[in-house]
Amino acid sequence: MTLNQIKILKNQLLAPYAHTQVGGMVDFLAIPKTQTELQELLLWAKSNQQPIYIFGRLSNLVVRNGGLRGLAILLHELNHISIENNIITADAGADLIMVAESALESSLSGLEWSAGIPGSVGGAVFMNAGAYGGQTDMVVESATAIMPDGTIQTFSSEALDFGYRHSVFQDNGGVIISATFRLVPDDQLLIQSRMDENNFKRANKQPLNYPSNGSVFKRPIGYFAGKLIMDSNLQGKRVGGVEVSTKHAGFMVNVAHGTGNDYEDLIHIVQKTVKEKYGVSLETEVRIMGER
After folding, report:
1. Distance (Å, whole) CA 137 – CA 148
2. CB distance 83 to 102 below 8 Å
3. Which of 159, 211, 243, 252 has the fewest Cβ atoms within 10 angstroms?
4. Where in the sequence numbering do the catalytic residues fall?
């Protein structure tokens, strides 16, 4: 099926597109190459009363085996990056790692923390992603989105209502199309060394040899989720093909053709065990969606 030359695919598995390699079937799937195509797809979904799901790298969510009813739009073709003075403007589908590399090439500091995060710009803004002392809200100057009424609005950093793993787009239904990052000039070798240090820490602490969603749980106040899980003797705990990483207890890895349901069931086991042992409720950082 085509919509003004935009191919809309029917009954597509999301697993091949997901960072975890899991995810059930979606009714319709499209990959726009321009903002205009994205707008046309949003109008098509609205006129056909189809729910809409916007995905970047599918690196921070779990789609259950039953999949999604509606239209999934993947933004990875909307990935333009431009630099002017100390400002980087990037499309929502741009790879966060590539944005960090672009900053490095221009001797701009502020994105070193994101050098190894396998996500998109839109996802980083949506979730206020962060690592190693850095966070999206520290560098984002503005973000532009298509709103549910079809208008295009630009939000200042203040209007983005950033919080811990939260932005205004989790509340207002806007579809992020681009963001601007205000960075600061610095010595290129120093920027590179900080990126190398962060990536070295990742390689040593995180199970990068298996597909995963990164940190599964938000940091509970006064605790570290990974330590609570480790102290609960849950490392190596497996449901289907998904297990709590033996390298980093805060991660769940797809070790043997796991499914979205495996991830969700293992998450519930961990939450229940930690609650019973320590009285702490672990809240997921990853989003879980779709039908069982």
Report:
1. 24
2. yes
3. 159
4. 165, 215, 285
